[in-house]
Amino acid sequence: MEKIKVNIGSNGYEIRVGAGLLRQVGCWLKEQGFSGKLVIITNPVVNKLYGDVLNQALAAEGFTVTILQVPDGEDQKSLETAGRLYQELTDAYAERNTPVLALGGGVIGDLAGFVAATYMRGVPLVQVPTTLLAQVDSSIGGKVAVDHGHLKNKIGVFYQPSMVVTDIATLQTLPDRELASGLAEVIKSAAIRDRVLFTFLEGNLDRVKARDGEALEQVVLRTAKIKAGVVEQDERDYGLRHILNYGHTIGHAVETVSEFGVEHGRAVAVGMLAAARISHEMGILGEGEVTRLKSMIGRAGLPVEIPGLEIDRVLAAIKHDKKVQQNKARFILLKSIGDAFIIDEVSLSLVERVLRGE
Question: How is the chain split into domains, by residue range?
Answer without folding.
Answer: 2-173, 176-356
